[in-house]
Please model this.
Amino acid sequence: MLKVSFDVTAMRALSLTAFTGVSVMLTACGAGTGTAQYTLDANGNLTTASATTKLANGTVQTASLTTSPLTPGAGGTSTGTATGTTTTTPGTSTTTGSTTTTGTTGTTGTTGTTGTTSITPGWGSTTSGSTTGQTGTFTMTFSEEFAGTTLDATKWNDKIWYETSNATKNYAVSNGSLKIWPQRDASGKFFNRTIDTDGKYYQTYGFFEIEAKLPIGKGTWPAFWLFNHIGTRRPEIDVMEAYAGGGPNSGWSDANFHPTAYAATIWIDAGQLGGTKTMVTSDLSAAFHKYALKWEAGVQTFYFDGKPVFSKAVTMPDPMYLMLDLWYGSASGQPDNTTPTGIANSYEVNYVRAWKL
Model:
């Protein structure tokens, strides 16, 4: 679904031909974030248009359109051809296509007008083949691209439900990503930071994915999981947990406390394990990787960079919310003076996306 906004002044001069032409442009570009520019002649007819948009899956699309307008006041039709180009980054695949459309012109003459149409991604839009490693049609239900400069409080909390938010700021949204880093608070202690959708977004079943780069150092314990607190029950699916502080003898990290493995785990309830597996990898702090879960009624399948790495037949019927966090402890041990602090050592997340299957 596209959400389109028009400048009111430009809209007064926009004939049906122009409106139809711009609609073709947006259709050619698909749902995403970007702009479409159009130019009208003195008669209110669309003469040229172009658009560029970045889709939720990272694909950049461009399209252009030209028309042959009719004489003012004559009525009738005007035809135009929209040619779209899709460029996938990173990669080398480029596809082109064209669409011919016919729209009815208006009869009111106006001065020439140039306008800009804003395109924003719509939740509930249907995307085909956009989930990493998947085929078919999925309905997007949640998309966070971290395109702004602050954490969106309509989607996210910055604490877990049983804690108060630590006043020391150790997270930021900047340059297209969420960053959470190790930091000491006013008392001099390292503290946990949780970013979640508790009370704001829940889902039962679907495909869930993040793209992230992990921090290093003793004690660091970054994670992406689905969770809920329902009375005394605690259903949980850990899509990714890493323990860089474990050291080379732990199987979790190298001698420099860089994460070289992560785990995926299913908890049917607190203390009731449904399944777990550790994936040995390259240094997860050196580059971004995609961590994903396909959660179906009777089976959960975990993906790393689009490839299935673990599957377990477990029934998990409860709705759950999304959690991103940087905690300390467990297999990672406790942080100390060797643990790098500050934004340069962030658990960095480029996006969080969810679809209904």
Summary: The CA atoms of residues 215 and 272 lie 29 Å apart. The helical segments are 8-12, 16-29.
